[in-house]
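Chapter summary example: a protein plus adenosine-5'-triphosphate.
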Amino acid sequence: MMLACWSAKGGSGTTVVAAALACALATTSPGGSLLADLAGDADAVLGCPPPAGGGLAAWLSSPAAPDATSLGRAEVDAGGGVRLLPRGHGALDSRHGALLAALLEADGRPVVVDCGTLGPGEAPPEVAAELAGGASRSLLVLRPCFLALRHAVMTPLRPAGVVLLAEPGRALTARDVAAVLGVPVLCEVPVEPGVARAVDAGLLASRLPRSLSRALRPLAEAA
Ligand SMILES: Nc1ncnc2c1ncn2[C@@H]1O[C@H](COP(=O)(O)OP(=O)(O)OP(=O)(O)O)[C@@H](O)[C@H]1O
Ligand SMILES: [Mg+2]
């Protein structure tokens, strides 16, 4: 099962949701979980050192036909049962995008992909849009604000559901978001200083805030 997290506007909380989801899934899956990072911040959010190898960028641009074995070699241990495929440096080539999607879908572990921002006016890597469009669960991470919702409406990609950041003081509700986008809000993630502090300290994998794991439980149980 591949869950692809993406946003229509930068700074929505996509990387935090993707990383926390991978951590939550790792606690219930005997083989742990895999987080594939196409956006570039997952190692920092999980508190991993910068990748020593070429990561996904190198795998995607491999001149020889890459395979599952070489993809496995690109994984690093992120702690808490999460294995990370770091983005690495350089552009994300699309030539092996379909193979990457197939390998991730076929992986025995639950797989979370951080596809980054795919909104209108962005020029996202083709491979990120391909994974978000083809995933068994395509999840739009959204803050309940007018600008973010406007970007989501203008994005051609349709998610299976929305992960809503529950920010206090916002006028838009989950019901408004579901009505405008025509897809369900699958869970509401609290926006709390404790989550931001855990992210800043690189402690998400080792000490996932309970409020986050509780909020993401419906998604983790459905995976
Ligand atoms: N649930 C939360 N509670 C508090 N702060 C949060 C939460 N989720 C994200 N943040 C903070 O919001 C900021 C943006 O989060 P994040 O990097 O996950 O967004 P993003 O959508 O991946 O951004 P980008 O477009 O740069 O990839 C970070 O500083 C993070 O610590
Ligand atoms: Mg990000």
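Key point: The chain has one domain: 2-222.
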